Amino acid sequence: MRKKRTRKTKSRQLALETWKSRTRWYGLPMLGLLMGLWAMLRFSLLAPDPPANPENICEIFREHPVWYDYANDSRQRWGTPIATQLAFVYYESSFRSHARPPRTLLWGFIPWTRPTTAYGYAQALDPAWREYLQANGEGWFTVRTDMEHALDFVGWYNQLSHRQLGIPFSAPRKLYLAYHEGRGGYARRSFEEKPDVMDLAARVQTRAFRYDNQLKTCEQEFQCWRWYQFWPFCG
Q: In terms of residue numbers, what domain contains 36?
């Protein structure tokens, strides 16, 4: 009997060691594969479509109510009004999560490099995005193709423009000029030689003011849209 028990114990220990060995060899690669699949689904395949009616901020938030939460969190953290954040995204990416500048053409017909590294909802450039990640201690899952992070980036960048350049949050045109040209370019007034950029900044301001007027008529809808929220504690 003792020999049989000893054999069973040794057999179990051997099986346990075998599984431990397999886990060491296959466990981490499988974990990496699962995380990669999750990231692909989270940030690519499941990215929401652009809103059906981007001209009306109320309709945008009715279609994507969580976007209101993201914009409101950014406003509370950094100070940029919700309407201004959405106006930036409207003109930067048309609410397309994976937007990039079109490629240049080599010899007029071969797709070549892109003119900038702008990417995502907010069209954040690589250097500015790295600065944002370093400044806020963000990790791997903070990506430009996620509206939450894109709006937080817009708020963070505008907060720097407000602090360093003295631009008020109530001036979307000036905030956008600093966003488009960079804070250094804004300080040098590089935009004065770019009438297209100045015209674009004026359109951003017009849309921001229009969005703001629209939001005043419907914001309460999105302050209490989750099942656990109830008025007046969610406003």
A: 1-45
